[in-house]
Design goal:
The protein is mostly helical. The protein is built from eight helices and no strands. Helix 5 packs parallel to helix 7. The chain is elongated.
């Protein structure tokens, strides 16, 4: 039996509001505030998400699913995705902050799969060194997003940092010496 339509709407509204509240205030924001802003009772939140950690994990899963969908576009590039995610992290607190603490689940695996696909395309085009793997790219992505998130990096710092990261990913220029 499928959930009632109002339960589905409530869950979606809770996730929408919670994502905004936690993005603005970080993981320390209260579920009571989320309930008030979503227009539901606190019990409604706990029916859908028994703990605050469950709510945060659901936000992360939705965020990763959305990111994976967005970056899976045929015209997406590894460097373009990297740049967009760092800009988003610098602009606001986000649930990217939760990435290191979550177990690898279906959403994170899907996100990693998309990043791996972008990496493979970049390597096929000769834009990224062949020996670099998806794990290294994910580690760099998380680290740079964490830095931008925590530091509220201005655009110039984002560009400079990404330039260094991208230079490290690119193949060394040919020297012409045999």
């Amino acid at each position: 039996m499928s959930p009632r339509a109002d339960a589905v709407r409530n869950r979606a509204k809770i996730l929408e509001v919670a994502a905004r509240v936690f993005a603005e205030q970080g993981a320390a924001a209260s579920t009571e505030q989320v309930a008030a802003e979503a227009g539901v009772a606190i019990g409604t939140i706990f029916r859908h998400f028994p703990t605050k950690a469950d709510l945060l994990a659901a936000i992360m899963k939705d965020t990763l699913a959305g990111l994976a969908e967005r970056i899976a576009a045929p015209d997406a590039t590894l460097f373009g995705v990297f740049t967009a995610l760092v800009a988003e992290a610098a602009a606001k607190r986000s649930v990217i902050d939760l990435l290191p603490g979550l177990e690898v689940d279906e959403s994170i695996a899907r996100f990693r799969e998309v990043v791996a696909g972008l990496l493979a395309r970049a390597q096929d085009r000769g834009e990224v060194r062949a020996e670099i793997g998806a794990d290294e790219v994910m580690a760099l992505l998380v680290a740079v997003c964490q830095g931008a998130l925590r530091g509220g990096w201005p655009p110039a710092l984002q560009r400079g940092t990404l330039s260094i990261v991208f230079d490290g990913l690119r193949p060394a220029p040919a020297t012409g010496v045999s």
